[in-house]
Structure formats: C-alpha cells, structure tokens
Amino acid sequence: MFNKEGIPFFTVIIPFLSILFVSFFATSYHLKVTNEAFEANLQEYKKLYSKTETNKKTIKNIIESKTKEHKLYQKNFTDFMMVLTIAIIIFMALFSLLMISIIGDVVKKYKQQVKTEEKKLQSLNKNLASKVAIGIEEGKRKDKAILQQSKLARMGSMISMIAHQWRQPLTELSGVLMELETATRFKKVTDKHILSSIERSDKMIEFMSNTIDDFRNFFKPDKKKEQFSILDSCQKAINLINASLDDSNIKLVVDVKNDKEINGYPTEYSQVILNLLMNARDILVEKRVENPQITITIDTKGILSIVELKDNAGGIKYEHFDLIFDPYFSTKDSSKGTGLGLYISKLIIERNMGGELSVSNDKEGAVFKIVLAG
C-alpha cells in the first residue's frame, strides 16, 4: 500500500484510472451519439428499406422516429457525461485535497527526520571536534616526548663520542706528564724540556677544547636554510665519529664522485649522516663482522644530490622494512637504542628539506639512500 518514501500507492494509480475511465466514456460518446455516426446509420436504413415494398411515407416516418430517438439518446447521454464529468471533477478536487494533506504529512515527517539527522550530525561534529582537539594535544605531547627522548639519546651519544675523541689526547697528555715526572725525579729536567712539554700539553688541551666546541655547535639547530656542500656536511659528521670507528676497528670509505651544493639545513643534514654512521657502527659491532666496513658514496644526478651509506653487516630483515622508520622501533637492545634516530632522520630529510630517505639491501648489507634536490 505504501512506497519506500511513505506515500500511499493509490496516489499514483487513482488519477491514472480516472483519466482512463473518462477517456473510455468520451470515446464511447464519440462513437455512439455523434451526428456522423447517426447519418451513417440512416443511410443504412434507407438502403435496407428501399429494397423492400415499404412506401416512402412509411420510410419517412421511420426516419423521423429514429431521429427523435437519436436526439433523446444524445441528450440523455450528454446529460450523463455532464454529470460524470462534474462527479470526476469533484472527485479529483477531493482527491487533490487528500493528496495535499498526505503529501504535507510526508513533507512534515521528512522535515522532522532531517532535523533529527541534523541534530545528530551537529552532535557528532561537536564530539568530533572535541576528539580532534584531544588528538592534537596528545600528538603534541607525543612529539614533545619524542623530541625529549631524542635529545637525551643524542646527549648520551655525544658523551660517548667525546670520550672516544678525548681518549687519545688524554693518553698522550698522561705520557707527557709521566715523562716530565721521570725527568724531574732523576734531576734531568731542563727549561727546554719543561717548555716543550707545556707546548705539547697546550696543543692537546686545545684539541680537547675544540672537540667540545665542535659537539656543541653540531647539535645547535639551524634557524634558516643556507647553501652548503654535501661533502663538507658529511665530513663534519665523520670528524665526530671517526675516533669511535677507529676504536672499533671499522674501516670508513668515502667515495666522492660528484659533490654538490644544496639549499637546506647543514647541521641537521650532518646529524642525519651521524645517525646513519652510528647505526652502522652499532650493528657491525653487535654482529662482530669480520673486516667491518662502512662506505659513503656522494654523487649527483641532474639537479639531485644522492648520498648512499652502506655497511657489510648482512642487511635488514624483510619483516622490518615497513617498521624501520617508525618511532620507538629498534632492533637493538633497549639499553642501547631508543628507536628514534631513523625516525628523526626521516623527518629532517623529508619534512624539513623536502627530500627522500629510503633503505634497501644489497649483497653485503643495508644501503641507506638520501636524495635531495638543489
């Protein structure tokens, strides 16, 4: 009885039936009571009676009688059609009023549903806005925590590398003092010897002081972009970790095919290179690789600067490829890594400098590739 919008089915079928009904009777009227049809019938009567012995007067009386019957029938049928038409008009008027009422109820019901859905949507929007605000705050807190942990991790790495950088000059400084002490005990110390020892000691102390300055400047964030050499930025990172690599007997090979100057943040770029070097060093030491080696290749392709850093530690497991740049993911022991180094490195290269940092495996080990346009 009702369609899916809630409108009764007869609102569609009744007007159609009414029009069909009126059309049927109108057609019948045309066929039965029109003068053309009557004239055709008279001609048939004339032909029929002309073949018989009926006289003309009788035929005339019959025709007059038929004409009166036709006019009476025509009048009755016309009156009937008038009544029927009026009835149909009244019916359609009443039907229209009924339809207006029904459609009004349907529209009212639809408006009510719209208002209800609108209220639900407004409520959902308010809840969504609240959830988004909460999510943003949680994201900010998470970012702050990540940055704080990253700073702590870098501080620990910095202290470790300073220790490696200072180990050799401290040993040499200790040797100078022991040599000076021995000469003093045996009464063989001279002014020249003392001055020479002081000079050597000053040089080593200056080297250690410069090391502290290098580390302090290295971790100072860049405030604006500038033109810098890829090789120079890589060399800064190498200078900081070189002593640590020597201490672990790791060979570092730097293959410069084409250097390039790009516009970006040189200190942050050096931090990325340092993070990759530290990861390569840690995995080589952890796996106790025989003849450990790290290779840095610097090249260009058109406007692109391409740096590849690879090791010979056997590569990254296939199941770790999708997670390697996620925050807090690390293949190291929890006491040796926070899982933030590669995450921060990817943010620096891709978000801050508009480049790409990717990883793959070759036959010897992992290959990290940095691509920047400049």
Q: What global shape is seen? A: rod-shaped
- Any idea of the CATH class of the largest domain? Alpha Beta
Proportion in helices: 55-70%
Integer tally of domains: 2
> What is the chain-wise order of helices and strands?
HHHHEHEEHEEHEE
Question: Which features does this protein show?
Answer:
two-stranded antiparallel sheet, rod-shaped, disordered N terminus, Heat Shock Protein 90, five-stranded mixed sheet, 7 helices, 374 residues, alpha+beta
Task: Write up this protein.
The protein is an alpha+beta fold and 374 residues long. The protein has helices at residues 10-33, 35-50, 56-185, 191-218, 230-247, 266-287, 341-352, and strands at residues 226-229, 251-256, 261-264, 293-301, 304-311, 356-361, 366-373. Strands 2-4-5-7-6 form a 5-stranded mixed sheet. The protein has a two-stranded antiparallel sheet with strand order 1-3. The longest helix is centred in the first third of the chain and has 130 residues, at 56-185.
